Structures are given as C-alpha cells and as structure tokens.
Amino acid sequence: MTLINHDLDELLDLVDNEDQVVGKLERSKVYAAKLNNFRVINAFLVNKKGQLWIPRRTSHKRLFPLHLDVSVGGHVSSGESYEEAFERELKEELNLSLQEIKFQKLGALTPHQHQVSAFMHVYKIFFDEVPPYNRDDFMQYYWLYPEQALEKINNFDKAKGDLPLLIRAFFL
Length: 172
Fold this sequence. Notes:
The protein is built from 5 helices and 8 strands, in the order ββαβββαβαββαα. The chain has helices at 27-32, 82-94, 111-114, 146-154, 162-171, and strands at 11-15, 21-26, 39-46, 52-57, 72-75, 102-109, 119-126, 138-144.
C-alpha cells in the first residue's frame, strides 16, 4: 500500500467516463475547477438493527464543516486503488482495520450515471458498537434508521451532498 501524507495537497487521479486514469491533479485544483472525474470511497457502519452510524464532522474540516457524513469517506489518492483507500480511511477515521471487521461492497457509482460528486465505491461495514473514531474528524454521532437520517437532513440538518443519495440508493 502507498503511504501518502494527507496534510499536504494530495494528488488525485483524474479519470474518464470508464473510470480509467487520464491524468493527475492536486485536490485543491480539482475542487477549484469543480471537477467530478476523481475517485472517492464511502462506507456506512450498520448495526444488527439496521441503523446507520452517522457522524458529524468537526468544525475545522476544510470541506463540509459540522455536516453529517458517511461513517467512513475519503479521496482515493493518485496510484491508490479503491480498496487501498478504503483500508486507509477506515484506519484514519475509525481506528479499525479490515482484518477486524466484516464488510461488503455495495456498489460503484459515477457522476454521469448517478449524479454523485465523484466516481465512488460504496461499502457496508457490519458493526454493532461505536467505533473508536478519530476525534479530529468527527465531533458527535447518531445511530439512525435510514428514514430517520433522511428526516434529519430534510429538517435542515446540514449534510454532505451525497449522503441522502447514498442512503436512498443502498438502504431504502
């Protein structure tokens, strides 16, 4: 697995409509240009009751401060696979390793087919406890049924843009 310093402006792979790498660009430039042809991963912790673990991002996050978020999410760095990014983000955000969880890939989405913000792989993590999450990433959390999460968002609780779409696509 490639080690990346994520404190710097990370380099992201740019992809074509078939998710094939066609270039590279710094993350800040990708967002400044409002591009959507880069890669991300998203994952949801789901307990035995069918509730999703929905965290709230800290106030100092560069993107979407104080917004509700997926349980695990992040950019796929240049040269990294979706699976490597999932493993890295799982460790960084929830202090969990792939070896200690049971998970399932739910699907792959694209901006041009599914109106999401980037090319993404989405995972479901079977987990019944509050994970030992990174307090620099998240400040609080909720265990919510999918309908409750959408109700919270519909009642004007700020959320990352893809969150309601992912809940509808994979949990309703």
